[in-house]
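Chapter review. Work through the record for Hydrogenase before attempting the end-of-chapter questions.
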Amino acid sequence: MQTPDFVRGEVRVTEHQQGDDLLSAGLGLAGLAGAPSPIAHPQQPTPAELRRRAIQASWKGIADLGPLGGYGSVYGAVPDVPGREYQAFAWIPGAHAPHRVLLQAPDHFDRSRRCLVVTASSGSRGIYGAISLAGAWGLPRGCAVAYTDKGTGGGYFDPADDTGVALDGTRARRGSATLEFEPPKASAQGGIGIKHLHSGDNPEADWGRHVLQAAQFGLAMLDRAFPDQAPFTAQNTRIIATGLSNGGGAVLQAAGLDDGHLLAGVVALEPSVRVPGEGRALFDYASDASIWLPCALADARFDGTPMARTPKGEVPPAWAQRCHQLHEHRLVSAAHVAGQAAQAYEHLRAGGWTDDAMATAASTTALDVWRVVTAGYASAYMRRGPDDMPCGFHYGGLGAHGAPGPVDAATRASWWADASGIPPGNGVGLFGGSDHTADPTLPGALCLRALWEDTDASTQPLRDGVAATTVKMPRPSLPLWVVHGASDGLLPTSFTSEPYVAWLRAGGGHPLYWKVPYAQHFDAFLAIPGFGDRHVPLLPYGYAALDRLWAHIYEGAPWPALVPTPSPKPRGAEALTRDALDLPAAWTPGPG
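Structure tokens for Hydrogenase:
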């Protein structure tokens, strides 16, 4: 029952019983979908209040909990699952900052079919960032679930009061407790520090190691939770890895590093994955999209696309201005917006973008996600701190009307629970990389793009950082299933899953692949009027793939050589139905 040597400090153990379970912190489906869970004293939230808010925020950030979305009636469920949690800080050798690891051990753990699901948070979210996938699927069937935040999360450090986040989620001053992230001592006027972006570790390069450590931590904590059943090992406890988005990329990284055969199978949803020499790196196509997509989406072919036009049906003025600025920079030659948009569209098409991905990326573009991602990730790849981010960017508190100012104390107190892990948001703004022209964000976008395209030695750390994130080939016998939305506009399949699956097959692997029609990247966006009408959620297909993996591992069903891709239909303005999803019938156990 020893604690793994990569864990430093305490293991925090908490009980979660009546009114405070593992899956929803006692909120249930209606509570998860409702107003933010209250905090009695907002400037001094308790660890239990922060945990409840963190679980709620993670559910809302990933799953479609809207009234038409079908969660809990067509697919998925949020039953009460009592149990215990074991949480600690874990360290990769040589790292400057830890990653969180967490085991949820349900009281009704299935001792006859010992199962550990291991997962990594999506995006830059905190430790519960994959609960709607891994927790929702694993906990009700008696699996324990091990999580890692993979070096991301809302453990922001504020130099204004020299505080960061302690293991229990509350804020503490530097030196008074072990913090999940604290940058070198800086002045009170320094930038707010974000663990994913400013730790100096380039966490993405180690996401696979984070997942494998989480699995090892999970086994060790199962020894503590059920000592009469110990020891728990990969030989007597099947370990299933699953994740979505960045978490999907993390479990694929883990699969390639799994020399000890810890993993029994992998299901990755919409993974951010890069294979050597194939596809396009996230920073490459995101920095390109940041410049070109606002203008390309002004093309008439996107007139009916949700979030691509103003309420009056017009091209957003900022997007038309981007077309004009591309002309001023001699990047397009046409004299008018229509022609400029057509040229921008052709530029992206030549780079591998499909019409489907571009149309869905209208949401990503309207919400300024490209600039947010590229500014933050450039800092992570180049291992920069809060005060020396590339291209003049920095994070600071948001005061009135979006101007720089001190962060409200209550907002700061709940960062660990509420923040997405990559600002802006929750009282933190992204500043710099702009000018006072009619297109103020273009200079920063061009600067970030130049980091990728330059051959100057000063920009080589960015390309080196990106290269360090490529995956390795998993063992050919590992059951592996990739599920990706055909309409993904953030991590398009042509840059991610398709090159990965082709690479595995060329290397002798036999991955399964579902490219799900009408599915896109953000299930949570499906509650937006007009957006959900055109798309289907991806989570039910992840659950179905995990069901099939379970049938293979525990019920003797053969691992198929091929599975037909579902043919779903968008729900339109009506509520989602199971027939519309075209989910496979219950998997039938067969001979081993």
